[in-house]
Specification:
Elements (H helix, E strand, L loop, with lengths): L1 E2 L2 H5 L12 E7 L3 H12 L2 E6 L8 E8 L2 E8 L5 H9 L2 E8 L3 H9 L5 E10 L2 E9 L5 E6 L12 E2 L11 E10 L5 H10 L4 E6 L10 E8 L6 E8 L6 H9 L3 E9 L2 H10 L15 H5 L6 H7 L2 E5 L2 E7 L10 E8 L6 H18 L3
Parallel strand pairs: 2-5, 6-9, 11-14, 15-18
Antiparallel strand pairs: 1-12, 2-6, 3-4, 3-10, 4-5, 7-8, 8-9, 11-15, 12-13, 13-14, 16-17, 17-18
Length: about 375
């Protein structure tokens, strides 16, 4: 396991050509966007924000935009057969299509990434309405996932041109989710270093942490992972690939059921994980079970933390640390019937990176669920 400090990443001059301000939004292609929006509002505390569809001049799809603090989801469904969104859902099930990144200059972001080898998905496009102008561009990444670069400094509308404000009388209270902390991708055999190189060369990221199959494994299966971060640390993309084992790993299970590479999970930040997770559980969100033995030696591994262990253990929240502090995290079960996309809830208490203790615990918990499904 190798690491770089957050200071080293921040001061690396090679990261300057693509300044990122964070995640702008995450777009999901789903089978029924109206129902998905209701689910995320009810279970996770999102609020209605914007809508695009036939009523706004879009004839082949509908999109519902929901927001909670700085966390924005776009849920998109085709309304006709034989289009690329319908094909994506048929192949992958509900999943992430777009990881949109906020930039000051979307044209420059596209130029800098494509000249370094990025495959263009969308050339810079200016879009307008009565609220001003936004600029969007994009490149491909692993699988059928894409990065869009969003420039909205001259736009004051509810979301983007082409969307209208979505007002709803049903807006459940927030659960305390704040923003996207990181997004994890699962890639195929021997593809992790290919995509590490992509993020290094095309987007100026650095590998700040590496786990090999000795760090994350059980008697039956293993994986390898590298954590990629942009220069200011606002955007982190860990990348997983399978490793050799006696049986099928959870990354292999994902690749089989998703029918290719894609986003494995999205980590959502909170400032009070006990309150957030407690509320999510009351609303029906299911989380992976962590054995009580995990907590027997947790202080030996992480040292002193300003937390009462009992509520953490009751909720199944994991504890880990790096050189700058500690973090608390928990992982949901898959959000759909295919064992693919799930969410992580994370609270950082100084920690900027990760350590292997929780990766191993997560891997073991996922393997238990995988065995219960008969896919190990």
């Amino acid at each position: 396991m190798q690491t770089l400090s957050a200071t080293e990443v921040l001061n690396d001059p090679h990261t300057d050509f693509l300044p990122l301000q964070g995640t702008d939004y995450v777009e999901f292609y789903v089978g029924n966007a109206k129902q998905a929006a209701h689910f995320y509002k009810t279970a996770f505390g999102f609020q209605s924000l914007a809508y695009a569809g036939p009523e706004t001049g879009v004839k082949d799809k509908v999109s519902y935009v929901i927001r909670q603090n700085k966390l924005t989801y776009v849920l998109t469904t085709p309304v006709r057969l034989n289009n690329y969104i319908a094909d994506h859902i048929y192949k992958h099930g509900d999943g992430v299509k777009v990881l949109a990144l906020k930039v000051d200059d979307a044209s420059l972001a596209w130029e800098e990434t494509t000249k370094r080898g990025g495959k263009s998905y969308l050339e810079p496009e200016k879009i307008h309405d009565e609220f001003g102008e936004a600029v969007i561009s994009g490149i491909h990444t692993y699988g059928e996932t894409v990065h869009l670069f969003i420039e909205r400094k001259n736009y004051s509308g509810p979301f983007l041109p082409g969307y209208k404000k979505w007002e709803s009388s049903y807006n459940p209270p927030s659960t305390g989710l704040l923003y996207v902390d990181h997004c994890v991708g699962n890639v195929g055999w021997n593809q992790m270093n290919v995509w590490v190189k992509f993020y290094e060369e095309v987007m100026g990221f650095r590998n700040i942490l590496t786990f090999d199959d000795k760090d994350i494994s059980t008697e039956y299966s293993a994986l390898m992972s590298k954590v990629m971060s942009n220069g200011n640390g606002f955007v982190k993309f860990p990348i997983n690939e399978p490793a050799e084992g006696k049986k099928k790993s959870q990354v292999e299970e994902y690749l089989e059921f998703y029918n290719g590479e894609g986003v494995q999970h999205i980590a959502l930040a909170t400032n009070n994980i006990i309150e957030t997770v407690g509320e999510l559980q009351r609303r029906g969100v299911e989380f992976l079970k962590i054995p009580s033995s995990y907590y027997e030696k947790v202080f030996d591994r992480v040292g002193h933390i300003d937390e009462d262990l009992k509520p953490l253990q009751k909720l199944g929240i994991l504890v880990d640390k790096d050189d700058e502090g500690y973090l608390l995290q928990i992982f949901s079960k898959p959000l759909q019937d295919r064992p693919t996309l799930f969410f992580e809830i994370i609270q950082r208490k100084g920690a900027k990176s990760f350590r292997k203790g929780n990766f191993q615990a997560l891997f073991e918990a996922l393997e238990r669920e995988q065995e219960a499904r008969g896919n190990l």
